[in-house]
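Lecture 7, part B: from sequences to assemblies.

Below are the input chains for today's worked example.
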Amino acid sequence: MQETIPSSKTQILDAAANCFMNLGSDVASIDDIARSIGATKGRIYHHYPSKGSLLSAVRMRAVAFTLDALATTVGVHKAPADKLRLMAYTHVLTVIKTLPYHKVVLQHYRENVAKSTTEYERKLIAEIEDRRRTYENLFREVIDQGIKNGAFADRDSSVSLHSVLILLNSPVFWYTPPKTGVEQNRQAIANQLADMALASLGVETI
Amino acid sequence: MQETIPSSKTQILDAAANCFMNLGSDVASIDDIARSIGATKGRIYHHYPSKGSLLSAVRMRAVAFTLDALATTVGVHKAPADKLRLMAYTHVLTVIKTLPYHKVVLQHYRENVAKSTTEYERKLIAEIEDRRRTYENLFREVIDQGIKNGAFADRDSSVSLHSVLILLNSPVFWYTPPKTGVEQNRQAIANQLADMALASLGVETI
Amino acid sequence: MQETIPSSKTQILDAAANCFMNLGSDVASIDDIARSIGATKGRIYHHYPSKGSLLSAVRMRAVAFTLDALATTVGVHKAPADKLRLMAYTHVLTVIKTLPYHKVVLQHYRENVAKSTTEYERKLIAEIEDRRRTYENLFREVIDQGIKNGAFADRDSSVSLHSVLILLNSPVFWYTPPKTGVEQNRQAIANQLADMALASLGVETI
Amino acid sequence: MQETIPSSKTQILDAAANCFMNLGSDVASIDDIARSIGATKGRIYHHYPSKGSLLSAVRMRAVAFTLDALATTVGVHKAPADKLRLMAYTHVLTVIKTLPYHKVVLQHYRENVAKSTTEYERKLIAEIEDRRRTYENLFREVIDQGIKNGAFADRDSSVSLHSVLILLNSPVFWYTPPKTGVEQNRQAIANQLADMALASLGVETI
DNA sequence: TATGAATGAGGCTTCATTCAT
DNA sequence: TATGAATGAAGCCTCATTCAT
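Predicted structure of the full complex, as structure tokens:
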């Protein structure tokens, strides 16, 4: 879907994202994932050394999707409200397009008081966390600037940031694709959420 | 916390909520829960017939907390914006006060394509879903009314509803209690989120 | 059924026999038995110190039923064929009347390579075995005598004995009571099996 | 014993039959079975998805043994008495040769009011029951024919059938192999039981 | 006598992982 | 690359039994 010619790794990744999404990453077994693409466990273990690394790959790809999407907006010079609106719109659109990946990510907001992990996997997780923070900071900057600016309401900036991000990720919790007009529907939702996000920060819409 | 003298069942429920919150309901084992209150597995199974039923009890109690909290506001006659603000504030405050329960709930937005469930557990889940919907409808009514009213922006009402609810539940993802001034902090957050929720619906905040 | 005023012990015994019969003595739990008479485990433990002792009581009662029934025929002086016929008829009738008990007994033909047993329970089992052997010997005597006698076919006496006993117990495997005419049906079966038993030993019937 | 080179599955099956026979299928644990062939539980679960399915496989094989053995006699045209004698002899011989399997079968005459069974296992059980009935019908036909014929005594045919079958299965309850002359002993028993079975039906034994 | 709470041992089952092929 | 067999650890659950009331 995202790759024109899905490589074996991408096929596995997509399958994993779907299984993790549907069953939860703890419940979905390697066998479930393998079965969903008509393969056996062995094939998966040839590409990913462990279930944890596969999960990390899914989460990493989720961040990559959004980071890539925002790349074009990063250098743009605009007023905070305009810039944030563009970022918000882009973010929502990306999330909806690659929903399974982001659903998996949202399962993992809990502090991973992981029961046991290898050194290698802790490194993967640290990298994900690092990129996630990088991404978050793109929003933090523009929001902080807008608050300082007077463009946004003078509220606690941390709460503002997190609330906006949750709002923009919320399709993860309730989005279901319509029978027809998928693309149009996505854009409508992205627009509405971008509007609501800006409004929640005190920007007068319309 | 909620019970002055926690009964055995409530003690187990609190422990379960905490373990499920920290480790995820799939990873946390009955032994983890038992150990956290110095009990044996047997004691837990004496009160709850299965892990699934324990999880359901936690989720049900979460809904009960919010439903009880809103009970006082149900009859109130106010303009949609005022009424929603009261509801929003109350909701956030309740969620923060009983955070572990709501963290568990939010883990379960995934459609429970559960691997296998007994008839009995499906019934429990249906009851939870029923009460959750009842609760959701309290918000739906006032939001729909406000949109019709012109008090709220004329946007897709379903998206508006779900977005507001996610916003009001967002502390689940990021709240950590401060060292001091806990109560004051809670109220500040509840106020800010209520403000943001109303603003996101297009209500001019003063 | 057997007791005009079922004492508490007898009520438990009957319930146990039924549960053991239906579920198997290993699968039926004390709770199952208690529940089937609307009681709790405690009541059963007041009358029987362990599940094993309860099972033994059921098996012992089964032997007692048949032993009591044959008591009247013990002293009788008749030709082997006639005596055996009377014994056979009486045995079958008794078995059908107290079927659950005998079904339980037949579950335990396997050498009880019991996984673990207390001294006390081994004693109970020894007593049962003792009385069972006593009962078996009543048949052995008359069959041996008949073989020596020429009344019965000159075949291996041990095989003859065991085969006849299995034959006479066979209702345990297939008997189901008719809608009407229960008593008459029982007698018909007892007669037919007695006939077949004698015939199998070479006695010309009719 | 039956397979010259026992496959992994057959080895497990034989081990299961022995354990189920000795301890009872409810008491014998998967660990018991695994241990008896120096394997791990995992190995068994790799080949059989559950204990129930393993038990079903044992029972199914038991029926297969007897069904295969009688295959040669099925087309034979003989008078009922002669045909039944051949069938009886063959049956007894087969049962003694594959005793553990048949001991397991005879433990399960109880209506499996099993506590809980999966759809899959109910299907297995239905198949077993189906083949068992097929086998039983081979005997039913010849017995019915003999009764109609006048070759066998004019008694209730259902009772006659079941009694004969129990008689022919009776070694399951009492057979123990002799120190020497095993094969000869088997044949002697098969002959005696065949004789007794025919006699029990009213056939004059020479 | 009887109950309800609690224990602890043991059984079934799942599953990530490894390995020989 | 991929498969199928096998392992071992861990989790859920049952149940005989004990005990305080």
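Note for the exam: Residues 29-31, 41, 45, 50-52 of chain C lie near DNA strand F (CB under 10 Å from a C1'). Keep this in mind when comparing with the next example.
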